[in-house]
Write a structure and sequence with these properties.
Layout (H helix, E strand, L loop, with lengths): L2 E2 L10 H12 L10 H21 L6 E4 L2 H15 L6 E5 L4 H12 L3 E5 L9 H7 L4 E7 L11 H11 L4 E5 L11 H4 L3 E5 L10 E5 L25 H15 L2 H20 L4 E4 L10 E6 L4 H9 L3 E2 L15 H5 L4 H4 L2 E5 L7
Helix pairs in contact: 1-8, 2-8, 3-4
Length: 361
């Protein structure tokens, strides 16, 4: 029997997603830039996808741009907006617990002369809002903050953070990495003050290699990929129509019964936490209540290296993660756990368990 508990790394596709993608790869396979009927059919699928996502976020269709996934969405948002806004300032703010898809673009921008402030977090992994307020400067042009932490499920106070930023200077762009939160929460950018939102398809039972970036129509941003001028010249390259349509279908499926699905996942999470708590030497990291994601549990097991335990579980058909699989498969201490103040002896003894809509009791 297979027990897959690594859904924050990737999820299995909904059957309806796979079926639609096969149809598009084998039948409706036209290039959406072509002017004949095959191209027009492909273009219709792009319109369908934009419509689904825009309605879900309650934004305009023209504000949705398709990418190759969360990493590209984060890179485009951060580098594209920073470069475009350089005349207004060169100060950026992010947190110390971001995904590498945010932290590495920030490091790149530092090499280009930008200044970056990395906000600390509390023991629950949450941003300290007073630190955000004190970090804002006259030359701040961008703040980037994740919605849900990918390693231990902490929810960041997005709406409160956005209010602090916008009250200080409405021109500062507020970007949110929504990769782990989208599909588990209803995220409404205009209501919560989000100017740009990054999402990945394969975290919501859609395909790998596709994502989208919501960009508020007033945000000034430049491309980081150049070519044929697709998507208003902001993201050139022939659109991956099967994956884009598959992602849109996954959005529909993920939000069809969201509240019931999330409640069931949280119940399973609580059961897992209770069971882990019965074992000697196990410590649950971060918050486990309603202020944490319904699908992620971080547990440190004293005296056993996470890599050893991961493979021991694998031998029994149980699949988990030793941190973030998106970072790399090379063992390294988690920057998130270090920022939270987890004791050094447990940094190399931590596993992440992550659930999905397909997880059963």
């Amino acid at each position: 029997m297979e027990v897959y508990l690594d859904n924050s790394a990737t999820t299995a596709c909904f059957p309806a997603v796979a079926e639609l993608m096969v149809k598009l790869m084998c039948e409706d396979y036209g290039n959406p830039s072509s002017m004949h009927i095959k191209g027009m059919q492909a273009e219709q699928y792009l319109r369908y996808a934009r419509n689904v996502i825009a309605k879900n976020l309650k934004v305009n269709e023209k504000e949705i741009f398709f990418t190759s996934g969360g990493t590209e969405s984060d890179n485009l948002a951060i580098i594209g907006a920073a470069m475009a806004g350089r005349r207004a300032g060169s100060h950026l703010i992010t947190t110390s617990v971001e995904h590498p898809a945010v932290l590495q673009p920030m490091k790149f921008l530092e090499s280009q002369g930008f200044q970056v402030t990395y906000l600390p977090v509390d023991k629950q992994g949450k941003v300290i809002l007073e630190e955000l307020a004190s970090a804002l400067r006259l030359d701040t042009i961008l703040v980037s903050m994740m919605h849900t932490n990918n390693e231990m499920g902490a929810l960041q106070p997005i709406e409160e953070a956005a209010a602090i930023v916008k009250n200080y200077n409405p021109a500062i762009i507020f970007h949110v990495d929504g990769v782990q939160g989208y599909g588990k929460y209803r995220i409404l950018p205009r209501k919560t003050g989000i100017d740009m939102l990054s999402v990945s398809g394969h975290k919501i039972h859609g395909p790998k290699g596709v994502g989208f970036l919501y960009i508020h129509e007033k945000v000034k941003i430049g491309p980081i990929i150049f070519g044929g001028g697709q998507q208003k010249g902001l993201r050139s390259g022939t659109e991956n129509v099967p994956a884009i349509a598959g992602m849109a279908r996954a959005v529909e499926e993920s939000y069809a019964s969201l509240e019931e699905d999330v409640e069931r996942m949280r119940s399973l999470k609580n059961q897992l936490i209770w069971g882990l708590g019965q074992l000697e030497g196990v410590q649950i990291n971060g918050s486990t209540g309603e202020d944490s994601a319904p699908h992620i549990v971080s547990a440190s097991i004293s005296g056993i290296r996470s890599e050893v335990l991961l493979h021991a579980l694998e031998d029994r058909g149980i699949y988990v993660s030793a941190g973030s699989a998106c970072a790399s498969n090379k063992p390294a201490y988690s920057a998130t756990l270090k920022a939270m103040g987890i004791e050094k002896a447990l940094l190399d003894s931590t596993l992440r368990f992550s659930l999905s809509l397909f997880t059963t009791k």
